[in-house]
Every structure is written in structure tokens, then in C-alpha cells.
Recover the amino acids of this structure.
């Protein structure tokens, strides 16, 4: 029995055969090998540019590397490392490089590093203006030097780039005043034509959870929306979406659900957000609250003001984790991981009515060793599963119309 | 097939090799099967198993408080497990333990990149949030505390475990 078979729905594209890697891999490591190449990666982030070229940014061997593919990953360009030296990359469970590519094929990559022995973070970015052949030396994303992690990026319709991250700078004045400070803060900035518009960066929301990935999408031109694990009164770490009225005004905070997870901890398990062309917000998240536990989906059809009753995803006691949602016109898909005691599987459920109803879930991929979070990526007309596994390498898997 | 062969090789190796090896830092490597070994080793004694990690902010605050409490508390077995993703940093882990006065407790560190499998053996519903404390009573009843634990609650639980007149248990950290 071939237990590591990846179940293809329409197509399975193997970018890397893991065969040779397995001969030398260390069981103790998340990675199949120690080098900077793709098959050694623990985190891989995909994005399609406007022409349908697939771009990958990955973390391997203490490096962030970038390559592109014009044939959906059958072949890739020669990988380019964005720094000359090995980096102390943030290896937290929800850390990963962010990558966006604009219409001029300017490639923007942001990621976080550990800058000291206390594991304070530093978010840096780098750009390529020659279609990924070379990258500028990484620069700090803000002039502030307090800890920063979990950067997320997205391109606006006019090509402006929105970057948002978790920032601990506000703990400094709190400490000076001998006051407690919970969590971190959501800070953001914009880049126009590759130039940071506000080096200091602006605060969007104080007192958020400090160790979970962010999700970002656009509600309209100049109107980013960010989903994050917030800290509500009483230390409740439930999810919220902050929608901007304009590029500089994060005006509307809405609670996605009342899970009542009162916890002073690092869940290491952040949410995800997509907004369909019709304006429907789709959110997936993990909670272990007193009201509900596990993975959930909810949507908003009133511009993020209110959300539907959470829909449970997967089996909580089956280790369901890392939900990710993507919407494309009326089609929407949610993937997540489950662990059955031996293998990790990716399950998929789909909607053809913009999230109003969902199919039963089914397994679309499986691996028997460590793996990255399952991600979804679109080229504008199709949705793909993007999944890095230690055992089988990187997979880009088309979710066909039947799904 | 390669996965099956690999799993078979691992199974054979796991039989041939010690269940867990102790590194020169005094921190044992937590691998597949370690959890059952820990439960077996501490069966019948009140035991606190604490999961933490070097990048976890609340853990940094909590660890010294736990260390101070446990220093004066001989009644329970203590097992500390660094549950950060591999590769975790052994030196940083040891430094934090030393600073908290916990370097001489029974210390473990996640040493298998397939963390889902490690967590599944401990609690299938656990998705990796830390800190996390598992309190195991004499009869094996498990109480799980997500997030930082209130020292007063820990003491209260321990008082309930201590039967009057019963000989105190040896602390594993000694």
C-alpha cells in the first residue's frame, strides 16, 4: 500500500521528489535536509502574479529563497536567496515569508527574524525589480526597534502594498509607567512603488494576541481588512476583523464570534480571511474557548459588520488544525489538516454559493511526516492547494470544478 | 511504499535504541513513546507536567514563578517539557530553566519534527498552545490547565492530593 499517495482531484504537480531527500533527512527535524533548496523547506508561501506565473518564497537552511514557475510548478526558475548570509529566521509555528508580486513584476518579500537571545523579532523586507533575479539587501520594515513578528502583506488595486504585523513597542511606555501590558499591537504601513510611506508605521489596534498569524484581504480599493486573534476584556482571546475605511483609517472592529477563550498563552494558531468579489467576508479560525472548541468558519454579508453562526470544521479530537479559506467568485474552498495517529491529511470542503452552504469534507492529500500548514492560492480563475511536506516535497494541487 | 519502509525502520530503531536519550545538557529528548514512559515513571504520585517554550511570552513570565513555588514544594513530581517546534534551541532552553531555578527538574525537549504525532500521544485535541499544564493525580486523573497556571490553584490541587499522614512523595527534580 502506498501510504503517502497524494490524492489528485484534477491534477497533482510534484515540484520536488522527496526520494533523495529522505535518505539523509534527520527524523528530529521538521526539514528533510539542511540546505536552502526547496525540498528542504519547512515553510513555503505561494502567489500568482497577474500573468499567471507562480511565485514561491520559502524558508530553508536559514535562508529565504524565491523562484517562479510558468508551468504551474512543473519547472521553476533558478532559486534566488534574498540575503547573502544565513539568517536567524523566526521558526515559530505560524511564521512564514510573505510574498506579493505586482503588475510590473516587482517582487516584495517580508519575513521576521529573531534579533536577540530573548527571541524578540524583527520584521524585514526585500524587493526585486528585475523579476526576481536579484534582491535588495533586507531592510527593517519600521524604524522602531521593539519586537515585531507575523508580517502579512497584500496588494491593493492601484499597486500599493499593504503590510501589517504584530508589534510590541507599546509595552515600553507601559513598563515605564509600571502598568501591565497584554499581548502586542497591530501596526501597518504602505509601500508605493516600492518605497515605504511611513517608516515609523501606524497602530491599527492595541492589545492583540502576540503569537498568531494574521490574515489580510481587501474590502475595496484602499480598504484592507485584517483578521487577528484579539484580546477582548477579561483576557478573552477571540477573533476580530478590522476593516479600514481608507488607507490610513482602521475604523471598524468587529468580533467574528464569541468563543470565550480566556487564556494567557501563545496559541500559535492564527486565523485566515478572504473577501469574495461580491464583498462576502469568509473567516476560518481555531479556538479552545468555553463556548466552542476546534476549527470554525463564518461569513459576513454586511461588509464585515456581523458574522454567521460559526460552522464547525473537522474533528476537534482528531487534531484538526490550520484552516485556510479562499473565495473566487461564487466558489469558495476551505482546507485544513487532521492527524489520525499516524498520518497528517488535508481535508477539503467547498461551496458554490459564496459560502452559504458547504459540501461534505474529504481527504485530498496525505503525508506521514512533518508538514507545513495547507494553503490555498488562486491564479484568478482556479484554486490550488499549496502544501509543503517533509516526506513528499512541495505540492501544488488543482482543485477541479468537481470540488 | 517508501513511507511504510521508513516507518518500519523507525519502529525497529525505536526498539533497539533507548526510549529517550539524555543529552549532555540534562535535557531529555522527547520522542514518540516518551509520553507513555513519563506516565509510567510517575504513576501513583501527584505529578505536574508543564509544557512551555522559549519564544512564548507568557511562559517567560510564568517560569520563574513556577520555579520559586516548586523550590519549596517537595510533594509532587515535576516534569518540564519544552514543546517548541523543532529545531528548538537547547542552550536557550537550558538558560531559561536555569534562570527559573528549574534546570535540575526532569526536563525534556520536543525532538521529533512531526509535532502533530507527539501532541496526539499526549492529547489529540491539543493544538500546540503553550504554556499548558497537565496535573496527574495519584489515581491517574488528569486535569489540564491551558495558559499560565495560578500558583494558588496549583497549591490547592496539591493539597487535595496529599492524604493526611501519608508519606510525601519524592520530587522527581531531586
Amino acid at each position: 500500500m502506498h501510504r503517502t499517495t497524494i490524492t489528485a482531484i484534477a491534477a497533482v504537480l510534484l515540484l520536488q521528489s522527496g526520494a533523495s531527500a529522505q535518505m539523509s533527512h534527520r527524523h528530529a527535524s521538521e526539514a528533510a535536509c539542511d540546505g536552502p533548496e526547496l525540498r528542504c523547506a519547512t515553510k513555503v508561501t505561494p502567489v500568482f502574479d497577474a500573468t499567471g506565473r507562480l511565485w514561491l518564497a520559502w524558508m530553508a537552511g536559514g535562508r529565504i529563497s524565491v523562484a517562479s514557475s510558468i508551468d504551474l510548478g512543473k519547472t521553476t526558475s533558478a532559486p534566488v536567496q534574498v540575503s547573502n548570509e544565513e539568517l536567524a529566521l523566526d521558526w515559530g509555528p505560524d511564521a512564514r515569508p510573505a510574498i506579493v508580486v505586482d503588475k510590473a513584476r516587482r517582487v516584495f518579500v517580508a519575513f521576521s527574524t529573531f534579533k536577540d537571545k530573548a527571541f524578540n523579532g524583527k520584521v524585514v523586507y526585500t524587493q526585486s525589480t528585475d523579476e526576481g533575479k536579484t534582491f535588495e539587501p533586507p531592510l527593517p520594515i519600521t524604524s522602531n526597534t521593539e519586537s515585531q513578528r507575523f508580517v502579512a502583506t497584500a496588494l491593493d488595486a492601484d499597486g500599493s502594498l499593504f503590510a501589517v504585523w504584530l508589534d510590541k513597542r507599546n509595552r515600553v511606555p507601559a513598563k515605564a509607567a509600571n502598568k501591565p501590558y497584554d499581548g502586542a499591537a497591530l501596526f501597518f504601513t504602505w509601500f508605493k512603488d516600492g518605497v515605504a510611506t511611513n517608516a515609523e508605521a501606524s497602530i491599527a489596534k492595541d492589545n492583540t494576541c502576540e503569537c498568531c498569524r494574521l490574515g489580510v484581504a481587501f474590502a475595496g480599493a484602499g480598504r484592507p481588512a485584517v483578521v487577528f486573534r484579539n484580546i477582548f476584556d477579561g483576557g478573552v482571546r477571540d477573533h476580530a476583523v478590522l476593516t479600514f475605511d481608507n488607507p490610513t483609517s482602521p475604523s471598524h472592529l468587529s468580533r467574528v464570534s464569541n468563543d470565550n477563550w480566556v487564556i494567557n498563552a501563545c496559541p500559535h494558531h492564527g486565523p485566515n480571511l478572504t473577501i469574495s468579489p461580491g464583498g462576502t467576508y469568509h473567516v476560518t479560525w481555531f479556538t479552545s474557548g468555553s463556548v466552542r472548541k476546534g476549527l470554525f468558519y463564518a461569513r459576513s454579508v454586511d461588509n464585515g459588520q456581523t458574522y454567521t453562526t460559526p460552522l464547525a470544521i473537522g474533528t476537534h479530537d482528531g487534531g484538526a488544525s490550520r484552516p485556510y479559506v479562499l473565495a473566487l467568485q461564487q466558489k469558495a474552498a476551505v482546507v485544513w489538516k487532521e492527524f489520525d495517529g499516524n498520518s497528517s491529511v488535508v481535508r477539503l470542503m467547498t461551496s458554490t454559493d459564496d459560502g452559504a452552504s458547504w459540501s461534505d469534507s474529504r481527504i485530498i492529500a496525505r503525508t506521514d511526516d512533518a508538514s507545513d500548514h495547507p494553503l490555498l492560492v488562486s491564479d484568478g480563475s482556479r484554486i490550488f492547494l499549496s502544501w509543503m511536506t517533509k516526506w513528499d516535497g512541495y505540492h501544488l494541487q488543482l482543485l477541479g470544478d468537481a470540488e | 511504499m517508501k513511507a511504510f519502509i521508513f516507518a518500519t525502520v523507525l519502529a525497529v530503531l525505536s526498539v533497539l535504541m533507548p526510549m529517550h536519550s539524555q543529552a549532555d545538557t540534562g535535557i531529555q529528548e522527547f520522542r514518540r513513546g516518551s509520553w507513555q514512559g513519563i506516565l509510567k515513571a510517575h504513576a501513583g504520585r501527584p505529578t505536574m507536567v508543564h509544557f512551555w517554550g522559549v519564544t512564548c511570552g507568557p511562559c517567560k513570565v510564568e517560569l520563574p514563578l513556577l520555579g520559586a513555588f516548586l523550590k519549596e514544594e517537595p510533594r509532587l513530581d515535576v516534569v518540564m517539557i519544552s514543546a517548541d517546534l523543532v529545531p528548538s534551541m537547547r542552550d536557550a532552553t537550558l538558560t531559561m530553566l536555569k534562570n527559573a531555578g528549574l534546570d535540575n527538574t526532569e526536563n525534556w525537549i520536543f525532538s521529533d519534527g512531526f509535532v502533530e504525532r507527539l501532541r496526539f500521544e499526549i492529547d489529540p485535541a491539543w493544538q500546540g498552545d503553550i504554556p499548558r499544564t497537565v496535573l496527574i493525580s495519584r489515581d491517574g486523573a488528569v486535569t489540564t490547565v491551558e495558559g499560565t497556571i495560578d500558583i494558588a490553584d496549583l497549591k490547592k490541587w496539591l493539597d487535595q492530593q496529599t492524604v493526611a499522614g501519608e508519606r510525601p512523595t519524592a520530587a522527581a527534580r531531586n
User: Anything to note?
Assistant: Chain A touches chain B through 47 residues (CB under 8 Å).
